[in-house]
Every structure is written in C-alpha cells, then in structure tokens.
C-alpha cells in the first residue's frame, strides 16, 4: 500500500485534482507545511490499517492557525506516527471512485455515493475500462448520487460533472497502464458547488510492486 502522500502524488501525476499536502513527523513540520499549502488545513493521522480516519478520530478539520495545527498534532498523532497536512477542500457532495482487479474480468472501475458510510449506502455501479465519456456518464446515471449531480446540468452547471467523468476514465487508465496497481480507492471525492471544482481528498493505492512514474499521462485520454 502506498502511503497517503505517495498515493496523492501519483494521483496528481495522472491529472487527478488532489489538494496540496505533505507529511510531517513533528508539530513544527506540520505548522510549516500548513503555511506552505495554505490555510485552512486538515491534519490526518497516518497509521497502518486506518481507513476511515474521521470515524476513528484521526482527523482534525478546518485548522486556521499554527497554534491549532500544533494542538491537533499533539492530540492525534501517536509516537512514531506521521501526519498528513492538507489544504482544506470546500464542502460538497461526497462520491467514491475506485478500481480493482477482478480475477475473471481484470480491471474494474467503480462509482457511487462516498464518505464513511459507503458500505452501508450500497449505491455503486461498475464498468470495465477503458471507459468512453458516454460510458462514464452512464455510471453517474445509474446511481442516485450521480443523478443528483446530473441535475446541475438543468441550471447550466456541468463543469464538475465533466471532471468526475474525467477522473473515472483516468482511474481506469491507471489500472490498464500499471498492472502492478491492484486497487485504487478515492474516497471521498468532494464535488463542490458549481464553480468550486472537484477535490480528491483521500487516496489509497495498493500495489503488487513499485509503480513507475506515468509518462505523458495527461495525453492518454485525449
């Protein structure tokens, strides 16, 4: 499993919209990172096996000063652990975008309602990559969370929908181009209000071996 920062960097290299972030091992490093990525920030505990950080009490949100960052680090981060400091994303609709390798069908892309209750919601749909834009859009149409997003088009707001479609296609392409990636979990992906973008807040990427840097990744889906 890639650590959260390495996963975010790989996702960003593939053109996914990840907020600026970095890893800190001391309160001082966390404060310096917060200044660099820009307030407000989120501080997340990095620990093996910790998936839903907010449910486990491993996240401090909307930190607006160095003193708040220091206090959160001291409160949340155990000895020998690290913290991910990330620019706070705007609020919005939370979706999950993922991909995995099925023993029979190979790479599979998934879309649905996201957040900490993703398993309970069971609002998901699946496709085999590579995805056309039409196929990715159909994935939105097949879920209630996707249909909720598509209602924005009636008001002339389609920018964030196009970004979600692009992320779905890129996740599938990552699996096709890198057979050493066994799983991609982007949850939550925050679809902010119209004009405020889409933000891949948490990235989990599981590997069978080291992943090389993607070459010319941004041109693969042209």
UniProtKB/TrEMBL annotation:
Domain ATP-grasp: 8-44
The entry's keywords: ATP-binding, Nucleotide-binding
Domain of life of the source: Bacteria
GO-annotated molecular function: ATP binding; metal ion binding
Annotated InterPro entries: ATP-grasp, ATP_grasp_subdomain_1
KW NAD (keyword) present: no
Protein's recorded name: ATP-grasp domain-containing protein
